[in-house]
Amino acid sequence: MSLADSLQKDMIAAMKAKDKEKLSTVRMLKAAVANEKINAGHDLSPEEEIAVLSRELKQRKDSLEEFKNAGREDSVKQLEKEIEVVQSYLPKQLSEDEVKDIVQETINEVGATSKADFGKVMGAVMPKLKGKADGKLVNETVKSLLS
Description:
single chain; about 150 residues; Hypothetical Protein Yqey, Chain: A, domain1; Arc Repressor Mutant, subunit A; 7 helices; carbon-nitrogen ligase activity, with glutamine as amido-N-donor; Asn/Gln_tRNA_amidoTrase-B-like; YqeY/Aim41
């Protein structure tokens, strides 16, 4: 079942259950996928669908930090629910240890030895971890292993 089909099915289920938070989040995700499909001019591959979901998740996590810093608890709770819904459509995220192992393996593959090789390592590791780990975590892991 494609992501669009899954979103449609879940949207109908949320309507029937009168779950307003899930319904609005699923509608936003459905719109984001549809927009990406229009921009691409073709049906999205599973990798492209994951990229759209990852982007939506990142936007919500960034907003969550801003709302927490501003003390807006009402918005924080809503965003936490939205993040939970978005994550339900993404593949299981790798743990910090799994990310660290993959980053270390990539550092060895590219022969990186210092912080100057940061770009080379990131370029090689991100395709391996795209959609499976948070980019911020990967970035911090690469920095710590190269120092």
